[in-house]
């Protein structure tokens, strides 16, 4: 009833309800990403309160990243079968319940179960698939703008909440900060329940950019049959070399962003005498730069060779990661790092998506990208645990930062040897077979 009243009021003013759906999705992905990034603030408080080792805490975060990625290719099947609103409300509620129960945890296995397994599944039910589904269902024009906004919200949300959470953790404890996250998740679920609709035809509207109301055909495939589709597409894509180039470089992307910086940047700065609140502020600054960097990358990817864009993105990211340990960790040095690294945080997404569509076709590109994104999260999981292990064994994060920087430089070189015409011929051959 609320969505119907809002759509009628907006329609009288010439505003398409799809923008409301985009706003709700933007909020959902922002809050979810904030919940994903929050544990980076809690690593040191958990160490002090429970005596857990950093590699033990990192193992829970690694499992979360892994499940977040592996659920992505199947999330679309759940949305098609049960509806976007139901899946999103269920996922937000699942994350909120898991984080609420963790307020009373006392054992490391409880952390792994709640923050690793349950939160990983909950966040994976939405992932990037939610933004792609909304863009395709509600817009035939402005899809690039919509995807750029939603991708930026997902990345920036991991960072912009951190200063507030760090301040709360420092003043009133990590449980109060985590309780705030749970409350925001529940409020977001209520907003989704009130305003999210499945398709424009549900409220008698055409897709944005079209004039006639269209009712899409409903698939008669069972959930089991729908879940087999991503596996069949993976089998086809795995026979094409360019898939492994994109999968491998996106593995490096995840390892050098979410797995390393998002998870361990705050405790890393703490090793050099920087406060958690100050380090969280630097991460928030990265989130602001990332928002503009992602939008700019989408604009550039429509106008320049995406291979060379990715060459520069990975190359500059690698150099910035190698530079950071040699900086003096003053505000100026960290601001310079935040500027260069933040603009590059998720700038790799638009050209990677475009290369995927060019090499595999529009019909399968979203599922293939789902598997490439799984590689991203596998890299995140590897770096999240590996950096924690490095800190435990060597009492230093430096090996992890140097390794991530070197991997970025190798990823940059991979796009130098990727030829412009190699992919389409091989993909066409795989499709004909």
How does the SSE layout of this entry go?
Layout: H1 2-12, H2 18-37, H3 39-50, H4 54-82, H5 84-101, H6 108-124, H7 127-138, H8 143-160, H9 162-172, H10 174-195, H11 223-237, H12 241-256, H13 258-271, H14 276-301, H15 306-323, H16 331-343, H17 349-360, H18 362-394, H19 398-417, H20 422-432
Give a structural overview.
The chain has helices at 2-12, 18-37, 39-50, 54-82, 84-101, 108-124, 127-138, 143-160, 162-172, 174-195, 223-237, 241-256, 258-271, 276-301, 306-323, 331-343, 349-360, 362-394, 398-417, 422-432. It has one domain: Up-down Bundle (Growth Hormone, Chain: A), CATH 1.20.1250.20. The N and C termini lie far apart (50 Å). 54% of the residues are buried. The protein has 20 helices and no strands. The chain is 80% helix and 0% strand. The protein is an all-alpha fold and 433 residues long. The longest helix has 33 residues, at 362-394.
């Amino acid at each position: 009833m609320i969505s119907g009243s809002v759509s009628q009021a907006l329609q009288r003013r010439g505003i398409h309800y799809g923008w409301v759906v985009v706003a709700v999705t933007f909020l959902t992905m922002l809050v979810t990403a904030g919940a994903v990034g929050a544990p980076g603030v809690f690593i040191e408080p958990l160490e002090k309160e429970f005596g857990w080792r950093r590699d033990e805490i990192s193992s829970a975060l690694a499992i979360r990243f892994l499940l977040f990625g592996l659920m992505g290719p199947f999330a679309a099947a759940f949305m098609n079968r049960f509806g976007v609103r139901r899946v999103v409300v269920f996922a937000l509620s699942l994350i909120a319940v898991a984080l609420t129960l963790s307020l009373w945890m006392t054992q490391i296995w409880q952390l792994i179960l709640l923050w690793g397994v349950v939160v990983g599944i909950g966040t994976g039910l939405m992932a990037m698939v939610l933004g792609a589904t909304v863009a395709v269902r509600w817009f035939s024009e402005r899809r690039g703008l919509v995807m750029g906004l939603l991708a930026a919200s997902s990345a920036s949300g991991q960072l912009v909440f951190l200063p507030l959470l760090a301040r709360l953790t420092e003043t009133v404890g990590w449980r109060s900060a985590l309780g705030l996250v749970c409350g925001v998740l529940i409020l977001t679920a209520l907003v989704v329940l009130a305003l999210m609709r499945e398709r424009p035809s549900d409220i008698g509207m055409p897709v944005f950019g079209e004039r006639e109301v269209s009712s899409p055909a409903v698939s008669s495939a069972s959930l089991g049959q729908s879940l087999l589709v991503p596996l069949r597409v993976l089998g086809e894509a795995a026979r094409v070399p360019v898939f492994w180039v994109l999968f491998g470089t996106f593995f490096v992307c995840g390892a050098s962003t979410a797995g390393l910086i998002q998870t361990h940047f705050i405790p890393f700065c703490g090793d050099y005498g920087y406060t958690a609140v100050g380090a969280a502020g630097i991460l928030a600054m990265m989130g602001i730069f990332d928002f503009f960097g992602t939008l700019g990358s989408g604009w550039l990817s429509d106008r320049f060779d995406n291979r060379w864009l990715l060459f520069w993105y990975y190359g500059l990211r690698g150099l910035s990661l190698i530079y950071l340990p040699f900086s003096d960790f003053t505000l100026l040095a960290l601001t310079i790092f935040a500027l260069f690294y933040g603009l590059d945080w998720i700038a790799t997404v638009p050209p990677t998506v475009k290369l995927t569509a060019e090499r595999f076709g529009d019909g399968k590109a979203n599922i293939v990208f789902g598997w490439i994104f799984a590689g991203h999260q596998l890299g995140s999981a590897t770096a999240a645990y590996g950096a924690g292990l490095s800190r435990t064994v060597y009492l230093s994060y430096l090996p992890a930062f140097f390794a991530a920087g070197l991997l970025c430089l190798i990823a940059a070189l991979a796009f130098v040897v990727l030829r412009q015409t190699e992919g389409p011929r091989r993909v066409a051959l795989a499709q004909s077979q």
